[in-house]
Amino acid sequence: MPIPKAELHVHIEGTLEPELAFRLAERNDVSLPFRSIIELRKAYSFDSLQSFLDLYYQMMQVLRTEQDFEDLAAAYLARAARQGVRHAEIFFDPQAHSERGIPIDRVINGLSRALQAAAERHGMTTQLILCFLRHLPQHAAVATLREAEPHLDRISGVGLDSSELGHPPEKFRDAFAMARDLGLRCVAHAGEEGPADYIRAALDELNVERIDHGVRCLDDGALVARLRREQIPLTVCPLSNVRLRVVDDLAQHPLRTMLAEGLLVTINSDDPAYFGGYVEDNFTAVRDALGLGEEDIRTLARNSFHASFLTAEQRSRYLAEVDAYRFS
Ligand code: ADE
Ligand code: ZN
């Protein structure tokens, strides 16, 4: 069994495997611009974040009913459980659905049913994080938060994703202030394709507690020192970084440097259906490419629980599982 871990950076829409996409397309009478799974997989060749996002949004058309969202999340959770995930904090993109006429309550109800079942089936804990699409205006984010208000008992936080360049964190200052006033935890994607300054802006202007990706922090020594001092978690996604050309190849990935700098880094899958692997696949890929040892892997697993939004009691229970884990 893989080491127990938390996954803190996974977009549920990015777990849509081609097989399920075609099944849902048929069930919902949606036509996809690909004739076969093989043809679709050929489109999984990206040269930037945007080239991926174009396909990611296109494939979402097959998600229409509450059952679709439940099936999507159930498939992810079953795979995650097999990969040692004990706790998952899952992103979803309600604006990508509402603009297609799918109301937020249908999305949240479907996802929640799968999350509840995963507690019983896999003994996992889960949380949902609502992401604002940063290519859309702030008023759309605020409207989405208003639509989510009746469901806040099932949402633990807000995030910020989609096209990073040209959409700096400060664009969403009011939406994040509102989320914080509602008692939601705050995270944001920053420093994936965008500059180190976006990481600083996410911390200072949005008051986020965690940075998603954050690999570009290494361009700025003062920022690295701050991230280390404040132990701000960075949810790093190695296979994603290779597929989206953030790094040239895994051997060049800055994860080892980030660990050596004393940063609180975690390993995550981002959009595993598109990037060639789930979270344990990311662990083994960086272990092999960067020559990480067993205690590095244990540190990464421990970090994932430290960086999570679990209660102190849940966290210590999971940390004890990590400490008791024996590599075979
Ligand atoms: N939405 C889904 N995956 C994403 C990523 N890697 N970066 C930004 N937005 C995303
Ligand atoms: Zn992401």
Description:
The protein has helices at 18-28, 37-42, 49-59, 66-82, 94-98, 104-122, 138-148, 173-181, 196-205, 221-230, 238-243, 255-260, 272-275, 279-290, 294-306, 312-324, and strands spanning 5-11, 85-92, 125-133, 157-161, 185-190, 210-213, 234-236, 265-267. By secondary structure, it is α/β, with parallel strands linked by helices. It has one domain: Alpha-Beta Barrel (TIM Barrel), CATH 3.20.20. An 8-stranded parallel β-sheet has the order 1-2-3-4-5-6-7-8. It starts with a strand and ends with a helix. The model has no long low-confidence stretch (mean pLDDT 98). Zinc ion is lined by residues 9, 11, 161, 189, 212, 270.
CATH class, named Alpha Beta
Query: What would you call the shape?
Result: globular
What strand order characterises the main sheet?
1-2-3-4-5-6-7-8
CATH-defined topology: TIM Barrel
Q: Largest beta sheet, briefly?
A: 8 strands, parallel
Write the CATH architecture name: Alpha-Beta Barrel
Radius of gyration from CA coordinates: 18 Å
What is the chain-wise order of helices and strands?
Answer: EHHHHEHHEHEHEHEHEHHEHHHH
By CATH's scheme, which homologous superfamily applies? Metal-dependent hydrolases
* First-to-last CA distance: 9 Å
**Count of helical regions:** 16
